[in-house]
Fold:
Amino acid sequence: MPSYLALDLGASSGRAVLGTLADGRMEMTELHRFETPLVRTDGGHLVWDIDRLEAECREGLRAALAAAPDLRSVSVDAWGVDYVPLGDDGTPLRAPFAYRDARHDGQMEASFEAMPRRAQYEQTGIQFLPFNTVYQVRADPPDERARTASRLFVADYLNHRLGGEAVAEVTMASTSGALDVRTKAWSQAVIEGVGLETTGWPRLVAPGTVTGATPEGVAVVATCSHDTGAAVAAVPADPSTHWAYLSLGTWGLIGTERTEPLLTDAACEASFTHEAGLDGTIRFLKNTSGLFLLEEAVRGWKADGRFDGYDALLTAAEASTFDVLVDLDHPSLATPGPVLPRLAALLAEHPNRGSDPVRVEDLASADVTRCLLRSLAAAVARHFGTLVALTGVRPEVLHIVGGGTRNALVCQWIATACGVPVVAGPVEATALGNLLVQARALGDLPAGASIRDVARASSELTTFDP
Structure:
């Protein structure tokens, strides 16, 4: 029974998951879990503690080798866009900035003066987000850019440190805003067009590439280094149906799988993105706020001693009668920190049962939770409607994967808001996709079985009807 290790890094937490392939199923065991080390520097910037991340990955590998001495392979997946700049000697020039840091503010808008928005989209098909890699690189000091021999995305850097080559895996590179959507090569037109140097962009490899081995002889595989790419690879969809997906965790990413880009003016205006998927597919999707704000609110309630667990909170939220919605994609809600003051500013614009403004201090945690989750369902439904309008195809089912599938209340509200059945699961879609791509890369999947076949067999699924 072959075993593999997925080192799955999220913006809030990371985990080492051992996968064992047996009887056409991938059995998963979490061996190690840790908080993702996001720290604030003396200068006030948010950065990832990359050395601690590497140490946690190595601890996960040690645990996996203890549990499965014949471990076949290992792969790291993580969030997109953030990168480690390396000097000529291969060592980091600095810690990787976190995408929620504000240092790149204004760079996206400034880039449009050098290369118009529509021209960038025609090349990359990428949603315009201020923290896209190209805009972060524009924020790097010129002397640092001159000293950057290569910049590796977080997951690719950690795969390299474990023993793999210093490369960029394509699904991860596609989040950068610098990858040609058609050729899957670095877009020299965009890189030069936005005023950047063509040096420092690493060699690209396809998902499922074995790039080296650890000192213990464990193969290092670049699976889908981008966590959403790995999650979508594990969507347990029936290929005979029209389906869409929502990868729901800190972020919500709703979209469909395509074989060709859709670079229309309408897609550009809607800021739908084209990210690379497994086997040359395109993940045509929209980023929206996920459960990040609820996580931030819960953090505050825990600090105040006012949190009795998610089950009690969701039961109370379902019973609440507070039905005011806010725009979760509002820029003021995009950064970490206390939620209630920012929510109050948005709620102040909404009358509540008459002309009196909503006072957030009058709201119970159940009311705030209901507001956030119903606003999330409304945002998903809005983007679902845009997806239908852009593609001309109405999906028959919406697959929700990721940690958000544990939240049955929001799954039901999303099904109702979108007007289609929701199939929720697997919870650990990213780790499962990572493991299954490793297994396929090493030739271990059962004869005639696809990754989605094994994903369905390996998952507990729940259906929510509108």
Remarks:
- The domain at 237-424 is CATH 3.30.420.40 (Nucleotidyltransferase; domain 5).
- The chain has a mean pLDDT of 95.
